[in-house]
Amino acid sequence: MNEILKFDNVKYFYQTKDDEIFALDNISFNVLEKEFVSIVGPSGCGKTTILSLIAGLLKPSSGEVILDGSNKIDRKKIGYMFQRDMLFEWRSVWKNITLGLELQKGKLDEKLALAEELLKKYNLYNFKNKKPRSLSGGMRQRVALIRTLVLEPKLLLLDEPFSALDYQTRLTLCDDVYEIIKSEKKTAILVTHDISEAISMSDKIIVLTSRPARVKDEIRLNLKGETPLRKREDSSFSGCFEKIWRELTNEEKSENS
Amino acid sequence: MKKKAKIVNFSLSHKKYVKKLRQDKFIVIFFRIFVLVAFLGLWELLTYTNVLDPFFVSSPSRIIAQLGDMIASGTLWHHTWVTLYETLIGFFIATVLGYLIAVLLWWNEKVRKIFEPYIVVLNSLPKIALGPVIILWVGAGTNAIILMCVLICIVITTMTMLSAFVNCDEGKILLLKSMNANKFQILWKLVLPSSMKDFISVLKINVGMSFVGSIMGEYLTSKAGLGYLIVYGGQIFKIDLVMSATFVLCILAFVIYSLVSLLERIYKK
Q1: Residue B1 pLDDT level (bands cut at 50, 70, 90)
Q2: Per the structure, how many domains does chain B have?
Q3: Interface contact A75-B178, CB threshold 8 A
Q4: Does the pLDDT value for residue A90 go beyond 70?
């Protein structure tokens, strides 16, 4: 499989008036096409920084981020999904999902057809002309995902997209998103602090240390099960959880000492 | 919601609840009208029986007579139109200009920081203090009045809109940036539409403020208008005239405010 993303010894410093914050220290990893990779780490360790670097919203202080063979980030290859759905309340569902096409002046018939198809496929077509306020939290996140998919990104960046939802919606949406990503054959990077979510969805998990973040461990997973919910029943699930849990708690202990 | 409500069979307690709501609403409207009628009635009664001297406080019947005279002679329309014209022009110029300045200041952070203290000072300066200067610059008359009106409204328009623009959801800006939007697109697709609510409250504030501006302008320098009538009436001790002009002013402000509210309701749909 082709390599779609590569971090090569990336360092990143945040500059503030009276301090320089060392956020990322020599981060190296890669993501292959159609892989689902999760990044877990103690809170505030710089997970979102990594996504911002991939999206080209930040530039690495040193080292290289190579997206699809080039170190010049082409944002058209990226789809970014946030913790909050960021739907525009004054636009209808349809106007929300075609927002990116409007920006890129790419309201081509085929793209619009894709948008319609995705709406139908994920049971939102009846809400096409509704305003987001009449949708439930889970539906809103699905709209946000479709808004991202319509642009046909090569790489999806998911920044804790489920953490604002209640537990039940969260598990269901997890399954939905997983299925959508797999059936659309997308590559995805998920940032989360929920270990079981990471295990149930990913092909690979990258565990980060506390700040400045380094790659502590890379874990390849091979859980049986069609959906994330089924994968939670796999026998190796708890062992995996145990391992990552210990790695993260050790981090926090060493941080406190 | 209304459609749903028709299908459901309501329980007795719900019917009672709805009935009570309707009763409460009726009571509010009834007493609203009652307060007005009582106030006018008492006023009329006290002046009719000479407990209060109508020379100083006027009376409803005298105001009606005064308005009748002015309608018959056609002067009421003239004065009302003059004030309305000044107010609307001032309102329009101040709103558009203030809005554009706010956009400009949002666009360039350095410019914004440079002008911040000046805007704060201008905001707290009582604009009436500029009266003599305005007359010297643009001459006595309609222009001076409109300028006064603009000065009063424009600073608050700029300040309110600018703070609405600056407080735009950072996350949504980030979303647009991740979709490769340029600054103009961020302004046009996000910052302006998301601040519509604030814009409508600015319009509401400006309705009141632009009347303050035009009446104050007419106090300073005028040959016609409701403010002119009030000053003139005061000078010749004709309180009926002062009260009549104030009454018309109340109605005018109410009508324009209702128009803005209508605009708000249309937008909310």
Answers
A1: very low
A2: 2
A3: yes
A4: yes
Range of the domain at B171: 64-268
In a domain, B119, yes or no: yes
Residue A226 binned pLDDT confidence (cut-offs 50, 70, 90) = confident
Yes or no, beta carbons of A57 and B174 under 8 Å apart:
yes
User: Do B18 and B112 belong to one domain?
Assistant: no
Q: Report chain B residues whose CB lies below 8 A from the CB of A55.
A: 178
Which chain B residue has its CA at the smallest distance from A80's CA?
B178
> Which residues in chain B are contacts of A134 at CB distance < 8 A?
none
**Which residues, in sequence order, are CB contacts of A235 under 8 Å at separation 6+?**
none
The answer to whether the CB atoms of A86 and B172 lie below 8 A apart is yes
In a domain, B260, yes or no: yes
Residue B8 lies in a domain: yes
A35: left (phi over 0), alpha (psi -120 to 50) or beta: beta
* Nearest residue in B to A91, CA atom: B193
Q: Model ipTM?
A: 0.87
Q: Is the pLDDT of residue B45 over 80?
A: yes
The tokens describing B93, both together, are: 């110029």
Q: Is B246 helix (H, G, I), strand (E, B) or coil?
A: helix
Q: How many CB atoms lie within 10 A of CB A193?
A: 15
Place A164 in a pLDDT band, splitting at 50, 70 and 90: confident
Considering the domain boundaries, does residue B204 fall inside one?
yes
Same domain, B111 and B172: yes
Domains of chain A with CATH codes = 3-256 (3.40.50.300)
A24-40 as b/e: b if 16+ CB within 10 A: bbebebebeeebbbbbb
Residues of B within 8 A of A80 (CB-CB) are: 174-175, 178-179
For A193, the enclosing helix (H) or strand (E) is none
Closest CB to B178: pick one of A80, A88, A90.
A80
* Three-class secondary structure of residue A159 per DSSP: strand
When the pLDDT of each residue in chain A is averaged and rounded to a whole number, the result is 87
- Judging contacts by C-beta atoms under 8 Å, the chain B residues touching residue A82 are 171, 174-175
Residue ending a domain, among B17, B32, B52, is B52
Nearest-Cα distance to chain B for A131, in Å, is 10
* Shared domain check, B96 and B26: no
Asked whether residue B46 falls in the same domain as residue B135, the answer is no
Rounded to two decimals, the pTM is 0.84
- Are B84 and B26 contained in the same domain? no
For residues B18 and B141, state if they share a domain: no
Q: Summarize the confidence of residues A55-82 as an average pLDDT.
A: 89
Identify the CATH number of the domain in which residue B153 sits: 1.10.3720.10
Tokens (6 digits) for A112: 């619009």
Contact B179 A100 (CB under 8 A): yes
Which tops the pLDDT comparison, A209 or B104? B104
Compute the nearest-CA separation of B180 from chain A (Å).
Answer: 6
